[in-house]
Design brief:
Number of strands: 11
Strand content: 5-15%
CATH class of the largest domain: Mainly Alpha
Helix content: 40-55%
Largest sheet: 6 strands, mixed
Shape: elongated
Number of helices: 19
Radius of gyration: 30 Å
Distance between the termini: 63 Å
Structural class: alpha+beta
CATH architecture of the largest domain: Orthogonal Bundle
Length: 492
């Protein structure tokens, strides 16, 4: 197999009427430093598939073959070829050119107008307002071969503009589209676009909208579409499975002992760290350590929730109950951290590392949409796993989200007389990595396996007092840092 020459020859070259350039191309062909992959198109990449080479250089090819063309319609919004290799240009005539991996659709239409920026050298792109107007036109073909996006896709793009730029940003786009429509005689297109924007801003008819996301925005419940898709994937992975039910004895002493370590580990994983004796003194005396007032209240708040059998028997039956439960439990948990606004959803965005959680303006709508799939689940463990991920992924509060997520998870199990779940220190990395894998790689199986293992281990914690349970946990290496121990689940 020939190797690519170690030269500075550009990957894409074009046939030329210029004699000097034409001779250069001929010499390179004879020396087998380039090859022809399409009419008047050559490459120095001797091994790659022609379709891949053309896809990687489509903008250079269009700029050369169709100078002063305007990237238009869906292509001006997506700024790329479609998955099956189609691109749409406004040009001086209508035609179609088929190249390996790329079909160029030339559509007779307006040339570049003021405001249409350069895309690449001699290739321009329709400005945003023009692109949205063009996408209001009708098209005979569907899918990737359609020059326009679907109405639902357009609504999704406009909804994103509201999310990023606010309502004023969408109004600015409408004003610019009105101006451009006068220049290009696109009055009916502007009327259609204006109807969608008015619906999104709740100043027109919601009936004009097709996208569930846009409808949710219009009725005051915008949602995070990417998170909703994650919730659907998790639901589907849980819905058709049978999970174990680890029942626990109806023993109030064991329940409170478990609740102590449930509170202890749930706070430890978030960085609120006490010794077992310190935490026990705080809870038994109901008195915070003077030097660590807020941290002590975090332990107390969590314990008051998870040690209360009546509280942990409450599971949401409606969307409104879900939001109320979250707020009420957060108020108890974070009562000493006034700066964290106990019981109030966040009013600014939050993140952990590279993970950006749900935009604060989308919290209600995303939780409400997630609740719909929660209602469809029947198995207690499935409901617990699903609820915990939804709350964790939305991150509805400024602080305390992980603890509230685990409280909501364990209420699903406790309400059915089943073992609650703790995440011991030694298992922290497994827990975090499984959550991250579901968030970033859309892989729910690892998350479910992780929780099932923690569920099985937690079901073995049935000791009557803190000393005995602590001794058992020590033998299981539960207090070890992840790098120093491993969770032992066998009976000791």
């Amino acid at each position: 197999m020939a190797k690519n020459p170690p030269s500075l020859i550009e990957e894409i070259l074009f046939g030329s009427a210029d004699k000097k350039e034409s001779r250069r191309i001929s010499v390179l062909l004879k020396q087998k430093q380039i090859r022809k992959i399409a009419p008047r198109i050559y490459t120095s990449n001797l091994n790659g598939e022609p379709a891949n080479i053309i896809k990687n250089n489509w903008f250079k090819i269009l700029s050369h073959l169709y100078p002063n063309a305007v990237l238009s319609y869906r292509s001006a919004i997506e700024n790329q070829i479609t998955p099956s290799g189609h691109i749409f240009l406004s040009y001086s005539y209508t035609g179609k050119t088929v190249l390996p991996g790329l079909t160029v659709h030339l559509l007779k239409g307006p040339e570049r107008i003021e405001g249409d920026p350069v895309f690449w050298q001699n290739l321009f792109v329709a400005q945003e307002a023009r692109a949205f107007l063009e996408n209001m036109q009708q098209a005979r073909k569907k899918g990737d071969e359609s020059k326009v996006l679907t109405k639902a896709e357009i609504e999704g793009k406009l909804e994103t503009i509201v999310k990023v730029r606010g309502e004023q940003g969408l109004n600015n786009l409408r004003d610019k589209a009105r101006e451009v429509s006068q220049k290009l005689n696109m009055h009916s297109e502007f009327s259609s676009l204006n109807g969608i924007i008015s619906g999104l801003l709740n100043t027109g008819q919601i009936a004009n909208l097709k996208s569930p996301l846009a409808i949710a925005r219009a009725i005051g419940e915008p949602m995070d579409a990417n998170r909703v898709e994650l919730f659907r994937l998790l639901y589907e992975s849980l819905a058709d499975q049978n999970f174990p039910n680890y029942e626990v004895p109806n023993n109030a002493i064991v329940y409170k002992t478990f609740a102590f370590f449930e509170s202890y580990f749930s706070n430890f994983i978030e960085g609120t760290r006490f010794t077992v004796d310190e935490a026990n003194n705080i809870i038994n005396s109901n008195t915070p350590m003077p030097s660590r007032n807020e941290d002590s209240h975090d332990i107390l708040g969590t314990y008051r929730l998870v040690a209360n059998n009546d509280e942990m028997a409450i599971c949401p039956q409606t969307k409104d109950q879900l939001l109320a439960l979250l707020r009420n439990r957060h108020r108890v948990l974070m009562q000493a951290r006034i700066s964290m606004k106990p019981g109030e959803f966040k009013e600014r965005n939050n993140r952990a590392g590279n993970t950006e959680f749900v935009d604060w303006r989308l919290v209600n709508g995303t939780l409400n949409k997630g609740f719909e799939w929660y209602q469809l689940l029947k198995d207690p463990f499935a409901k617990a796993a699903y609820m915990m991920f939804v709350v964790s992924e939305v991150h509805p509060f400024d602080d305390g989200n992980g603890r509230i997520a685990r409280v909501m998870m364990n209420a699903e199990l406790s309400s059915k007389g089943l073992s609650k779940i703790i995440i011991p220190t030694v298992y922290r990395e497994d827990y975090i990595l499984a959550l991250r894998k579901l968030t970033r790689k859309q892989a729910p199986d690892a998350y479910v396996r992780m929780l099932l293992r923690a569920y099985e281990f937690s079901s073995l914690l049935a000791q009557n007092n803190i000393g005995d349970m602590e001794a058992y946990l020590i033998r299981c290496e539960a207090f070890e840092e992840p790098s120093q121990g491993r969770l032992r689940m066998s009976m000791i």
